[in-house]
Amino acid sequence: MLAPTLLVYLQHLFSLCVRSYLQVSQDDVTLATMRHNELWASLAAVACVFQPVFSVPLENCARDADTCQASDRTYSNEVPRAGSYQPWSLIKLGSIGFPAKQYVTIVNLTPHRFVLDRSRTHSYQFDVFDWDDIPQGRSRQNTAAYTSKAGKNDVDDNGEAFYNIQGTNKGFMIRKTTHIPDDYPRRTVFDLGGMGLGAREYLDPGKESAVTLVITGSDTYGFTASLRHGPGNWMKGLYDVIKDRKVQHLYLPGTHDSGMSTISGDLTSIGTAVNTQTQGVNLYDQMRAGARLFDLRVFFFFFFDHLDLHKFYTLHVNDETAEVAVGNTGLSLDQAIDQVNQFTRENPGEIVFFRVRYLIGIRQLPVGGPVIWDNAITNEFFGKLRQINNRCPNLDQNTQFSQQKASYFMDQNGGKGCVLFLLNGSNLPSNVPHDSPGDGLYKDSMMNVWDNWSNLPDTKKMADDQVAKWKTVSRSGNFQNDQFLISQWLVSADALTTTALSIQDIAIQPTNPALYWMGLNNMSPEIFPTVSLIDYIGVVVNSRFSFDQLSAEMYTFAIGMNLYMISENCAINTRRSPLLPGARKAAQKLAVSEDGSVSDFAEDAVVNPLASDWNGFIYSNGTVVDQAPEERPGQEHTLKAGTVFMNGTVLTHEAANPNV
């Protein structure tokens, strides 16, 4: 046992070091940011918990313990190189001819840099294999061009890119490989086994199209990634993070023409799935895929062979007030109600916005113009909406909903959250009710929004317009033009183009993937839309609509934008980012240290209900195995002579794969 004198000396030395650390720490918090030595941060945390023993000045521990400070900021100003949009001319050529350039977008919504390990990144028979680091808060579109050289066997094309997560012992790998013969011969495997997040095989959906990997969280908070969906109630999982933010300072996924996940075909018109359907999954699965704002267009539908038979439908038409409307019917309102109730029953605590419009009648043979609703139809419609659970009646109408804190809505109905209906009554006559606040049915003027629709027939032009508008909305300083901004990340092609290429393929090949490289790299903690409204949420391969075949890019992106990006904006988020080491744990400790009481660290550790802990494998057809197979698609045990490493090494003979 150490002599008492030596113990006193060591205690004194430790105290001096810790006090010195605290004095030079810019944020005066014991659990410093990624830029500080995490070992000393941890030791300082212990010293503050046992403050009387180590004589650490309490004010150094307590000051700004859980306050967001500019010195904590990890968001990188380094902008990766610009990506490329898929030419629309290639949309229908995915399986014609093998050589192709494929893109892999990696989104980093963490406080750690993703560092490319060039000594482990290699390729065989790729004309281009271009990868690089991913800074914090940024994304990079990486390129893998399969060989076009004569005499090569496409079956042998393989490459691996390996990333280390800076400041941790974790990493992940991306494999580019082939599966021949197949309608989708080019494959991408995201292997996050080194993070405890499993692996997934993706079909490359088309030539010069992208697959996307989104990672958020941190080493201390836990990571989650877009390989699969987590809990449906992701907002409740972030309650402590977002509860004090204004609704317009959240980031929410939204879906365009949300009821058009099917063509029910009751309208006698030329609207078909390729030119009228806008979603691949129903409202229940859209919600599970992360969506929280829905564009619902409701008609009162008259069947021409049964004039006394009528029904409320969602509808997508060119003009709801036209003499001859062109489009078709989607979900019935009854189906929509059942799906919403199923989701909220299983996933309490969310804020769900329905922006409801059209509210007009149409005949099965859509000629002769619209039918204006009377009191009977309007009251029947309101009666339908009263069947929705977790509505929020009698809310404060003196404050715009967008200005309310998220917790105002999330705490309603005993913590079950809110389903908010915002009705656009522009087609309703003045002598019928336009709202019913006592039933939780409000005019859309209760939440003024900037609904930015570019109305452009080209992905790049649309994207340029959207990001330009984002940058006019200030989320800091004087908050000039700060508002609830809906960014319609979708194109408006004419009927001939959508019939030839399909709304689905235009969405999932050139348009949705661009949000994750072009969109994100024009966002920052101070620049972001409130909602990204998209077509075909979750769908990455044409007509693969089962939930297990969906990908969780938008779900994970929403979590990351709220958890990482907006948490670094101290004008919005006054508390210390939960992703920094021990942020909340420090605050909890310091809150009890003054009275001398100390609780166990494990009890106060930040628990991330959205972090994954799974190491299985998801095959491209949606099959899930909970135990990762020894032989993973694209994994080569032996590298061929001619394999090129990104550090400049070229194999002159076969060698064992260092990544296996």
TrEMBL record:
<dbReference type="GO" id="GO:0008081">
    <property type="term" value="F:phosphoric diester hydrolase activity"/>
</dbReference>
<dbReference type="GO" id="GO:0006629">
    <property type="term" value="P:lipid metabolic process"/>
</dbReference>
<feature type="signal peptide">
    <location>
        <begin position="1"/>
        <end position="15"/>
    </location>
</feature>
<keyword id="KW-0732">Signal</keyword>
<protein>
    <recommendedName>
        <fullName>Phosphatidylinositol-specific phospholipase C X domain-containing protein</fullName>
    </recommendedName>
</protein>
<dbReference type="InterPro" id="IPR051057">
    <property type="entry name" value="PI-PLC_domain"/>
</dbReference>
<dbReference type="InterPro" id="IPR017946">
    <property type="entry name" value="PLC-like_Pdiesterase_TIM-brl"/>
</dbReference>
